[in-house]
Amino acid sequence: MNRQPTYTVTIDGKEYVYPAGTPYSQIARDMQSQYPYDILLVNRDGKLRELHRHLDRDCKLTMITARDKPGKQSYERSTLFLLIKAFYDVAGHENVERVVVEFSLSNALFLRASGNFTLNAELLEQVEARMRELAAADLPIEKRVMPTDDAIELFHRQRLEDKARLFRYRIDSHVNVYTLDGFSDYFYGYMLPSTGYLKAFALEVYEDGFLLRLPSSQDPTKVGEFNPSRKVFQALRDDTCHAAALGISNVGELNDLIARGESEGLILTHEALMEKRIGDIAEDIAARHDVRFVMIAGPSSSGKTTFSHRLCTQLRACGMRPHPIATDNYFIDRDKTPRDENGNYDFEGLGAMDVEQLNQDMTRLLKGETVEIPTYNFKKGCREYNGDYLTLGPQDILVIEGIHCLNDALSYSLPHESKFKIYISCLTVLNIDDHNRIPSTDARLIRRIERDARTRGHNAQATIRMWPSVRRGEENNIFPYQDSADVVFNSALIFETAVLQAYLEPLLFAIPRDSDEYVEAKRLLKFLNYFLPLPDDMAPNTSILREFIGGGCYKV
C-alpha cells in the first residue's frame, strides 16, 4: 500500500507535519488561535501564497494577517471585487457602462459609476445588502490561469474594455483571472480564497461618486474613520478631469499613445499644465502683499526641491525676489537630537528643530533687520555660520521648505497673514485599469528608490526597508496639517512610471530572493511590467522627474 507523502512545515520555529496537498487555508485555520487578526495569506520561504494553494514541499511558513501590508492589500482587492460583482447584480450588467475606482481617501476608496441607473443612497443600500449576502454565503473566489488572448476575448464580452486594452501589451502568454459567482475580473495582486473573510466594509454616497469604506491599518476588524482632506480630494478630482481630457486615465490608454509614437505631445502638454499651475500659485502669492514667507511641505519624494526652484522662477516673473531656505539648516546639534523608542535619532519630529532660533531669525527679518542664515553641516552634525547675510526688502520673499512647514508650531511667532502655505504630494490619478488603482505611496516609493540609488548610495533593499519608518513620520508630522495649506499642488506626472521603469528594474532585481524586502520588490516589478517604456530624454530638464533621475537644470 502506498502511503500519502507528508511534508514538514516550520512556523515560528516549531515543526508541523501535514499531508501533501493540504491547502494553506487548512494550516491557517489550525494556527488562527495564535493570531489576533484573520490570517489572509502565507509567506512560503519568502514568497507570498494565496490560501487556496496546496502544500507541495517542506517549507517555512509565515502567517500574513489583515494587519500586515500584503494582507491589507488583499483584503482591499477582494472587497472591491465583491463590490463590483454586487453592483452589476443590482444595477443589471446590461445597464452598467463603467465602475471605476479612482483613488484612496481616508480608509476608503472613491469610485464613480456610469450607466443606465441613478447613483443614490437607495441604490448603494441595495448594493451593500447584496455584498453582505454574498459574504455570508462564503462563496469561493476562484482563480484560473487563462491564455492572454482568451482573457482579452472574455473581457470584450463583459464590456470591460480597459482590461482587454491592458492585456494587448502583455508579454506573458497567460494571465490570472478571478471569478466570483459567475462574474470574472482581473486584479493586480493576491486575493482571498472566499467572500466569508470580508466582514468590515460600508458604502456611502460622496460628492459625484461613492465610497467603499474599509478597515484602518490599526484595527482591521472594523470600518475605519473617514476624515478626508477636502483640499487633497479636490486636487485629485481636478487632475482626474485633466487626465480624462488628455485621454489618459489608465495604463492601457497610456500604452496606446506610446505605441502610436505620440508620447512627446503628452509630455509637453502635461508639463505645460504643471508650469501654468505653478505660475498661478506665484500670481496668487504676489497678489497677497502681506505674504513674506512661502511655507512648503509634503511627504517624501514629492519633488519639493524642484517645485521650490520652479516657483522661485515664477515669483521672479511676477516682480518678486525669492530666497530659498531649507529648514534642515535649523536642526539642533546631533548630540542633542531626541531619540525614538528604538534608541535611534528622531530627525522627523519637531524636537529635532531649533524652533526658537528659527523664529528669532524670521521675526528679525520681518522687522527689516539683517540676519546671518545658518547652514547645517550634516557630516559634523552641527550648525555653522558662513557669512550668508539676508535683509528683506519690499520685493523680497522667503521660500521655506521642510517637513513641518504647515505646522504653525514651527513658525509660531510669525503673523498668519505673512505666511502662504503649500502642500505638495505625488497624487497619482493614473489607474492600471478601472478596478486596479496605483497607490500614490507606490509612485513616491519608486521615485525614492531611484533617487536614493543615484544620490545617496542606498540600494533598493535599504530604501524599501526604511520606507515604513518614513511613512510613520509622514503620518505624524505632515498629513495632519494638509488642510491648513492655502494650496495643494499635485506633482504626479502621467508619464513618469514609463520613464522610471528602465531605472527601477535593475535595482529591484538586485534584491536577494531570501531577503524580507524581496516580496515588495517582486510586487513592484510586476507593477512596472504593465508599462511600455519611454526614453528619459523626453522629460524636460526643468521637470520634477529630473529630481529623481538626474539631468535637471536645478541643483537638487
Describe the overall structure.
It is a single chain. The chain is globular. The protein folds into three domains: 6-65, Roll (Ubiquitin-like (UB roll)); 71-226, Threonyl-trna Synthetase, Chain A, domain 2 (Threonyl-tRNA Synthetase, Chain A, domain 2), CATH 3.30.980; 233-549, P-loop containing nucleotide triphosphate hydrolases (Rossmann fold). The protein is of the alpha+beta class and 556 residues long. It has helices at residues 24-31, 69-91, 121-136, 148-157, 161-167, 230-245, 251-259, 263-287, 304-317, 355-366, 440-456, 460-477, 496-509, 518-528, 546-549; strands at residues 6-11, 14-19, 39-44, 47-50, 59-65, 96-104, 108-115, 142-147, 174-180, 183-185, 202-206, 209-213, 293-297, 321-326, 371-372, 375-377, 382-384, 389-390, 396-401, 419-425, 431-433, 436-437, 487-490. It starts with 5 loop residues before the first strand and ends in a 7-residue tail after the last helix. The mean pLDDT is 94. The longest helix has 25 residues, at 263-287. Helix 8 crosses helix 9.
